[in-house]
Amino acid sequence: MTDDLKESMENFVEKETTKQKEIFKKAIEQEKDKIKQCSLENVYKTVEKWLGIKIKDRNRIDVILATAISNKLAGTPIWMFICGNSGDWKSAFTLGLTGLNNIIKVDQLTANTLASGQKDAHDLGRELSGQSKILLFPDLACLTSMNTDEKNIIWGQFRNLYDGFINKRTGSGTNKAYEGCHVTMIACTTQTIRDEILIHAQLGTRELMYDTNTDVIDNDFKMDMAIYNEQYEQQMKDEIQEVVTNFVLYHKPSEAILTDDTKIFLKSEAQRLAILRASAMVDRQYKELINPVYPEVPTRLVKQFKRLYTCLMGLEENYPEEKARQIITHIVNSSGNKVRQIILDNLVKAKEPRKIPDIMLDTKLGRGAVKTQLEICWNIGIVKKEVREEQIGGYCDYNGERRGGRFEEVAYYSISYEVDNPHSTPTYQKSNIIIYKGGM
Question: Which of 10, 198, 218, 250 could serve as 38's disulfide partner, Cβ 3.0–4.6 Å?
């Protein structure tokens, strides 16, 4: 090989190496830019720019993103209902998910949406069959205005859909069957949906709820943002959709192994929610239980919480574990019976057993509501009930002796702190992990 040829080849290799370095450098810069664009902080900034979120509102963003990411996992799906006041930008943010290929937006819901009685109709079930999809309901409040029969049909269909199938058989001989439906659900609604869910809780509740807890003092700031954005709504929708879509596509659930402490936390919260949304048959007149209360076995709940926890931890590299726990605790508080939570909060704070009138005075709740919830909690075993004989009415004479009146049995209630077996019926623990934390 001549010296000229050798020098020429060396120059060629050097140029190619420099060229490759430039390509690699450019690729690295592009990847860094992509990571920056897909960061959680960038989502916050974009939403803050258009919707005026504040730091305390960011948790609801995390919940929606984590729920969307959870669809990448096989197995138990998450159905999350975002509950808040009308106009509280719930739909404005969730519509940013519509840029994903696996999103199906549903604006109208009837008993025939998932499967109709018409043989050749294009059912939504056909799109869900054998697929992993996210159903997005920008406004599920329409469900509350339906008649009772139609609502019962829809809730029954939802239970089957959660379990992965849709079946419908009509009197005309039409049989619709869709299998292998892996569906994550994100629905925006007002607090009116809460009564609907509690009514159907006896048949098994699959949905989790997240209350936005809208603060009235923020309304002035939010109105300012609405005035500013009024002329730029399409630009706002496009920017939010781009940042949300890119984020969900780029991120995946955390693969970190759960610690024993985290497992205890998740099981404790699952047990707590099983208590808070346990349903019962109650006599309308006397507010007495007709049958024993049987809380759900929280196996489904703990799987949902485990999935949600790993997806929250996957939102960014160093996502705060304490924040993930706070969000799950808030979901438990949001998903349970609010009246029951208020009453149990009152008992937790009390230093001695309380009777119904005392609790009514503190909580501003009616006697029927208080008595019903106390009887349910007593039946479950998380509340103690002590009946004392007390003299009602009468008067005291000059010697201080009470005369007249009548003797009645008065019930006193207090939180039960005894725990014999952590795997038995959940009770409120005074030490270690407090199953009921309060925090309305």
Answer: 250
